[in-house]
């Protein structure tokens, strides 16, 4: 049975980004945009884990957490820009299992979610005859194993985790080469060209977004 994840986040772009990242983990996902909707979905959906923002309309995250704790011990990870020690202590004292401060590393959050949900580390992205295993970093296209360089692997994972989201060349540079790099944006074009070639008949998965960069999508 698939694990159920409830994302409670009022910032639409953030919620969709989280949904995109977690969709590759083979989990069922619902999104709530305010505190009241979160409680409604919680009671009908019975999630295994809740990612809970604090600054929400209607009911804030503190109130949502306290309400849920009256009837459930479901796992709750609070994610918030409130970075004071007192806020973190308060969140944990009212029942949150974990607390992560924005802006956070998506990889760290994914690791926390996988640990809580006890997800199989052999998570695989599949699209028709293209398979990519995140644990073993093995790409297979139409049954053939394809060798990837370290940066090609990082770029493919970045694309998959941000599926259907336009990614700028500057963000690709930041993600793949890090904050301190001397590369210009053409380096990302070169890397994308190499990765497309490795995807063979599935090179169309990486589309070009004029004036922005690239998008990984299955349509």
Class by helix and strand content?
alpha/beta
The H-and-E topology, N to C, reads as EHEHEHEHEHEEEEHEHHEE
Using the alpha-carbon principal axes, give the shape: elongated
Helix content: 25-40%
Mean pLDDT across every amino acid position? 88
* Major sheet strand order: 2-1-3-4-5
Helical segment count: 8
Separation of the first and last Cα atoms: 28 Å
What gyration radius follows from the Cα positions, in whole Å? Answer: 19 Å
Instruction: Quote the beta fraction.
Output: 15-25%
Query: How many beta strands in the DSSP annotation?
Result: 12
Uncertain spans = none
| Biggest beta sheet attributes | 5 strands, parallel
Give a description of the structure.
- The protein is of the alpha/beta class.
- Helix content is 40%, strand content 22%.
- The chain has helices spanning 12-22, 35-45, 61-69, 85-93, 106-117, 150-161, 169-177, 186-199; strands spanning 4-8, 28-32, 49-52, 75-80, 98-101, 124-127, 130-133, 138-141, 144-146, 167-168, 206-209, 213-216.
- The longest helix has 14 residues, at 186-199.
- It is elongated, with a radius of gyration of 19 Å.
